[in-house]
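**Polypeptide and fold**
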Amino acid sequence: YAYISDGDMTNSVVASGMRFGMPLALAAMVGIMCERSGVINIGIEGTMLLSGFTGFYVASWSKNIIVGLMISIATGIITSFIHAMMTIRWKMDQIIAGTIINILASGLTSFLYKEGSTIPNSWPIFDLPLLSRIPFIGHAFFTQQGPLQYLGLLLIPAIWIMMYKTRWGLRTRAVGENPGSADTAGISVIKVRMINVMIGGAIVGLVGGFICLELVGS
C-alpha cells in the first residue's frame, strides 16, 4: 500500500512539474532559436509578461479566451519585432536591449494593472486517449494536462528538428556562427535573424497567453 501511495504521489509531482515547467521549457527553446541566429535574447521574460497581460485583459473584455490568446501571440510578435529592431537594425547592445524590454514590461503591467478583472473560463484539462494508459509516463505526461502541455510536447522536438535537420536550421546556425561567410553565400543575415526573433516572439506570446489564461484562470 505504501508503495502504491508513493507511486501515485510521484506521478502527481511529475504531472504538476510538467504543467508548470512546460512554459519555461518552451521559453528556453526560444532562447536557443535566437542565440543560434546570433541574437542573445534576454527579453523573453518581459515579452512573456506583456503577452500574458494583454491576452488576459482582452479575454476579460471580450469574454473570449481564444481572442485573448491571439492577442497574446500578436503582442509577442510586436515586442520581439521591437527587440529585433534595436539589436539587429540599430545595433544596440543585446543585453541592454533585452533589459529594456524586461523593465518596460514590468513597469507597464504594474502601472496598468487593475483588480477585479476576470476571464469567462480557462482552457480544458483532459487526457489523451491510449497514451494516458501507458504506465507512469501516461499518467505523468498525458493525463489531466492542458493544451499548452500537449502542444509543448510537439513543439520542442519540432524546433530541434527544424534547427538541425532542415535548410532553415542550417542557415540559422550559419548566420549565428559565421555571419560574414553566410552573407558571402547569399544569405541575408538581417532577414534570418529578424525572422527567428519574431518566430520566437510568437511562441513566447503563446506561452504567456496560456500562463494567464490556463494556469491563472484555472
